Amino acid sequence: MDRRRQEKPLESTPAQEMPEDEQWRLVNQSGILSKIPEAPKQKTLLEEEAPLANEILDATLYIIPFSTLLLVMDVIIHNQYGEYPPLKEFAGRMASGVPILGLFVFYTKRHQDNRRTKFLMFLLSVCVGPRLLYILARSSFTVNIRQAPPLITLWIYTIVQLDLGPAFLNLVICGLFVWWKDLRRYLI
């Protein structure tokens, strides 16, 4: 007979005799679980598209109110000067302004955590704020009608996107500009 068949297998203690918490302690102490490579996780199509979808949704949540602000400022500035243009003129201005505003909002929201973007938004607000105040105080009504609504919308958007410190500094700079150019008598 074959010798292998005659030998009795070593009796091992069944795993049932050792408590489960003791088994886990031994497994954790041996470090065997950390040696097993993890299978690479495959991203589903939904997980890959989620960041872009979230960016589009986030931008849309800003585009809608700021487009409405652009339209309302356009209507208000026309009414201020006693003009009542047809709805077609407002639709034309919105058709040209909203896509530009949408692209601007989308890309500034996408890169809003970037320091360069924040700095450029601050510079833009420093340029737009005084320009808006100057044209409202010293320009003719036709210039106000054409330039004020987009400038108001852009200035408010940049202030909303800035942190509190730069936004306050922008308002101080605009106040100093009004004082320097003596625009207070025209704006009040």
Automatic annotation (TrEMBL):
Q: Where are the transmembrane segments?
A: 59-78, 90-107, 119-136, 156-180
Region Disordered, as annotated, extends over: 1-21
User: Is Transmembrane helix found in the keyword set?
Assistant: yes
Q: Where is the DUF7719 domain?
A: 118-183
Q: What is this protein called?
A: DUF7719 domain-containing protein
| Alphabetical keyword list | Membrane, Transmembrane, Transmembrane helix
Supply the InterPro entries for this chain.
DUF7719 (IPR056136)
Transmembrane helix keyword on record: yes
Q: Where is the composition biased (Basic and acidic residues)?
A: 1-10
